[in-house]
Amino acid sequence: MTETTNALDLSYEEWTEVCTKRWELPRYRAEQLCQWIYGKKVFNVHEMTNLSKELRERLVYELLILPPITVREDESKDGTRKFLFQLYDGEQIESVLIPQGSHSTACISSQVGCPLACSFCATGQSGFSRNLSAGEIVGQLLAIEKRMGRDVENVVYMGMGEPLLNTAAVLKSIEILHSPKMRNLGARHITISTSGIVPGILELAEFHIPVRLSVSLHAPNDMLRGKLMPVNRKYPLGPLVDALKAYWRATGERITIEYVMLQKVNDEPEHAYETAALLSGMSVYVNLIPYNPIAIIRPGDKGYSRSSAGRVKEFSSILSKLGIENEIRRERGRDIDAACGQLRARSSAGEGGR
To answer: How far is 99 from 52, CA to CA, in rounded Å?
Structure first.
């Protein structure tokens, strides 16, 4: 029986081994195949014209190139695009493409759903199905780039799921994207966003590719953060801050802190003072994020409202006065529910795609 290889799951070293040992091909074939897939976004072996016809006919049966299938694509008035992708087993995930002047950023998922159940998050309310493979993570970027007809300059692991609960696949996907023989994306153009998984942050601090780190804080004390983010009960703020300092010392990279602004929940002046005290002594940059209300609330959960512009401005001003660099994030894609989890939830509830 012919053994098939899932192309997008392979590192460059694995490509070389498959080509030379399994297929008995010269080493340069690995680079050729990777250039077709990662450079030219060609996923059909028959279109790889510098391979012999005999080799192409053989690889059709032995090589699977399976980027996700686009089920739905929405475009915002501001140019933000949201993709609902379907995987080989029928599961669905979301990715977002955000234009930023002459550059763009792809926000990609690492899990189907999310197990952390943050009370304000649509993805968390949809439950958790499974981890994505490295190839399924990488495939999102390739599918977006093929659709847009150009390369995307930045990637953030900030879509559905918690990347540092799927560390092996996430780190392998980074190696694939970073490899000069494959996607050749610079380390400073890759950001991992976490809800505060301490062992994963410490592993990232020692990772040989110095990618950037973003941390969802959302509250400056354990009592409030534990209500908003159940993960805080396992990894409270003390150990989390220690891990962030370890990452900062190991990499020298400034850490981005994400803080969603919830009206009269975490946006009081005292919360700003607590946040500044918590983050003092590290190189950080705080993003104050407008809250996107979610349509699906689990029984017993409380709905939230976005903080008023005045409360956000006051919070920002306090942080600035206390030496914490911050910005009020410009809202993107609200008209297409660009916050991850909402499009998948609507699809699961029976709303059809375009």
So the answer is: 39
> Where are the extended beta strands (E) located within the chain?
5-6, 63-64, 69-75, 81-86, 92-100, 103-107, 111-113, 128-131, 154-157, 190-194, 212-216, 255-261, 284-290, 326-328
- Active site members: 94, 340
Structural domains of the chain sorted by starting position, each given as residue range(s) with its CATH number in brackets: 5-64 (1.10.150.530), 69-348 (3.20.20.70)
- In which element (H, E) is residue 352 found? none
Place of tokens 């914490």: 324
Residue with tokens 């983010």: 229
Phi then psi for 38, rounded to 5 degrees?
-90, -30
SS3 helix, strand, coil % of the chain, rounded to 5? Answer: 40, 20, 40
**Structure confidence by residue, pLDDT tens digits, 200-248:** 999 999 999 999 999 999 999 999 999 999 999 999 999 999 999 999 9
pLDDT tens digits along 268-295: 999 999 999 999 999 999 999 999 887 5
